[in-house]
């Protein structure tokens, strides 16, 4: 089997800001597996927060044996971007070989569209209000926060989009004191979920704190091994394939999280439709789906996912799976 890795850049429709920085393009790695005439593809987004770079992930993939299997991959690579791209490419390859969709190979029900959140990046309150007003027709908005001065931003978004449901992503940017100050206002402002309010290493402070709306673990939850440390702190886990290391572990994490009483959110890094396609399978029936990466881009894959009022639709075979 031939394993090829390419670097691809996709310009964003506008500057995307979170509490850790800003970007104007998405840089991704595309893995292409070739077995004779059969081709499988996967995508990952190396993330500096987890000490990943394009070069380091490329090196991990280059070191894999050419007869790699999905089962063997789980043992050779830790959860992360490299394993994700290869795992998803292997699923795609298996589906193409079998002439069956991935959902059928995985024993899942036929997937349906899922309403996805649309993300408003961190900005001045007036700019965020304008973003919200422009997207007020969307049923679910996710707002990037994570500073000590976020209440005016939250108020501004609510003014701009008075009917939309709102979820907040603080990206580890708050202290326990900031979260405690904001939390009494969340219900009033129609917030339905708060994602990773505190840094992952300091989230023990959530134990015993009042949670007026569900709190979701993102940076604190990577795979099934993360679950024991979340008890008493979080109500929901955010499953991202670049954290779990692919679809294989993402499906296992979803099953384990639900069995332990957690709600499930399925999220993404800022990637193309190829990265979102496997995640759509994990997102079936999720409490929150946040697979809006392609909606933030000025350019996408040649064969993109379809988005409409019903949400993000499952991929067609010429994209993935």
UniProtKB/TrEMBL annotation:
<dbReference type="InterPro" id="IPR029065">
    <property type="entry name" value="Enolase_C-like"/>
</dbReference>
<dbReference type="Pfam" id="PF02746">
    <property type="entry name" value="MR_MLE_N"/>
</dbReference>
<feature type="binding site">
    <location>
        <position position="169"/>
    </location>
    <ligand>
        <name>Mg(2+)</name>
    </ligand>
</feature>
<dbReference type="InterPro" id="IPR013341">
    <property type="entry name" value="Mandelate_racemase_N_dom"/>
</dbReference>
<feature type="active site" description="Proton acceptor; specific for (S)-substrate epimerization">
    <location>
        <position position="240"/>
    </location>
</feature>
<dbReference type="InterPro" id="IPR029017">
    <property type="entry name" value="Enolase-like_N"/>
</dbReference>
<keyword id="KW-0479">Metal-binding</keyword>
<dbReference type="GO" id="GO:0046872">
    <property type="term" value="F:metal ion binding"/>
</dbReference>
<dbReference type="InterPro" id="IPR013342">
    <property type="entry name" value="Mandelate_racemase_C"/>
</dbReference>
<feature type="binding site">
    <location>
        <position position="218"/>
    </location>
    <ligand>
        <name>Mg(2+)</name>
    </ligand>
</feature>
<comment type="similarity">
    <text>Belongs to the mandelate racemase/muconate lactonizing enzyme family.</text>
</comment>
<keyword id="KW-0413">Isomerase</keyword>
<feature type="active site" description="Proton acceptor; specific for (R)-substrate epimerization">
    <location>
        <position position="144"/>
    </location>
</feature>
<dbReference type="Pfam" id="PF13378">
    <property type="entry name" value="MR_MLE_C"/>
</dbReference>
<protein>
    <recommendedName>
        <fullName>Dipeptide epimerase</fullName>
        <ecNumber>5.1.1.-</ecNumber>
    </recommendedName>
</protein>
<dbReference type="GO" id="GO:0016855">
    <property type="term" value="F:racemase and epimerase activity, acting on amino acids and derivatives"/>
</dbReference>
<keyword id="KW-0460">Magnesium</keyword>
<dbReference type="InterPro" id="IPR034593">
    <property type="entry name" value="DgoD-like"/>
</dbReference>
<dbReference type="InterPro" id="IPR034603">
    <property type="entry name" value="Dipeptide_epimerase"/>
</dbReference>
<dbReference type="InterPro" id="IPR036849">
    <property type="entry name" value="Enolase-like_C_sf"/>
</dbReference>
<feature type="binding site">
    <location>
        <position position="195"/>
    </location>
    <ligand>
        <name>Mg(2+)</name>
    </ligand>
</feature>
<feature type="domain" description="Mandelate racemase/muconate lactonizing enzyme C-terminal">
    <location>
        <begin position="125"/>
        <end position="216"/>
    </location>
</feature>
